[in-house]
Amino acid sequence: MTTILLASRNAKKLKELRRVVAAAGITGLEVVGLDDVPGYTELPEDGATFEDNALIKARTGAAATGLPTLADDSGISVDALNGMPGVLSARWSGTHGDDAANNALLLAQLSDVPDDRRGAAFVSACALVRPDGTDTVVRGEWRGTMAREAHGTNGFGYDPLFLPADDLAAGRSSAELSAEEKDALSHRGKALAALVPDLRALANSTG
Ligand SMILES: O=P(O)(O)OP(=O)(O)OP(=O)(O)OC[C@H]1O[C@@H](n2cnc3c(O)ncnc32)[C@H](O)[C@@H]1O
Ligand SMILES: [Mg+2]
């Protein structure tokens, strides 16, 4: 059995990561979270890109625990804001992880943006760092448009404001999708799908 650490402090994101890894049906992989390992000093997520930040989190976890470590760095990139909030998504309103304040600020900033220019994408970079120091970084994107008000209570973060472009989600925000629907379409689901071969290889390795 290979143990892998999912290095996230966001309980709802961690739940999604666990869910998608479990749904991949990889045998021989035991998944643990940050609450299951001794505490360690985390580094600021000050990278310029999602990939940089995912690597910062995964490298720190792997170095501190000796475990293969998977980390996600994600956010929403709004076309009319030249890709922002981007890597600043978790702290857009100035307070880290205050979803309500982040959503309220973003809605207000987009109030004068017409319907045909409200495009956006959720982006996830997932980094896997192995104990030998090698890493694999993948990226998933989910296109949609920004709503004019919040809809739904599922998911987390900006989900109530995001209207996916997919037919499956027609007329619903990503906070109105079931967990299974979100995983099948989402940036994080796509990124992790790309990592499944690497996770399988890890599970089959003896290290
Ligand atoms: O860094 P960790 O500890 O994993 O947790 P975090 O919440 O700080 O995560 P990020 O630094 O990756 O910031 C991502 C932010 O982007 C938003 N976000 C990312 N994925 C999302 C999703 O699937 N649905 C809604 N919002 C999302 C949400 O506001 C997150 O707080
Ligand atoms: Mg973070």
Overview of this protein structure:
- With 207 residues, the protein is an alpha/beta fold.
- It has one domain: Maf protein (Alpha-Beta Complex).
- Helices cover 31% and strands 22% of the residues.
- It contains five helices and six strands.
- It has a six-stranded mixed sheet.
- β1, α1 and β2 form a beta-alpha-beta unit.
- α1 packs across α5 and α4 crosses α5.
- The longest helix has 18 residues.
- The model has no long low-confidence stretch (mean pLDDT 97).
- Its EC number is 3.6.1.66.
- This is dITP/XTP pyrophosphatase.
- It catalyses: XTP + H2O = XMP + diphosphate + H(+); dITP + H2O = dIMP + diphosphate + H(+); ITP + H2O = IMP + diphosphate + H(+).
- Its cofactor is Mg(2+).
- Homodimer.
Provide a compact summary of the structure:
The chain has about 210 residues and is an alpha/beta fold.
Based on secondary structure, the structural category is: alpha/beta
The CATH topology label is: Maf protein
Number of domains: 1
> How do the SSEs run, as a string of H and E?
EHEHEHEEEHH
Biggest sheet, strands in spatial order? 2-1-3-4-5-6
> What is the total tally of β strands?
6
**How much helical structure, as a percent, in the residues?**
25-40%
Principal-axis shape equals globular
Keywords: Hydrolase, Magnesium, Metal-binding, Nucleotide metabolism, Nucleotide-binding
Subunit structure: Homodimer.
Cofactor: Mg(2+)
InterPro entries: dITP/XTP_pyrophosphatase (IPR020922), ITPase-like_fam (IPR029001), RdgB/HAM1 (IPR002637)
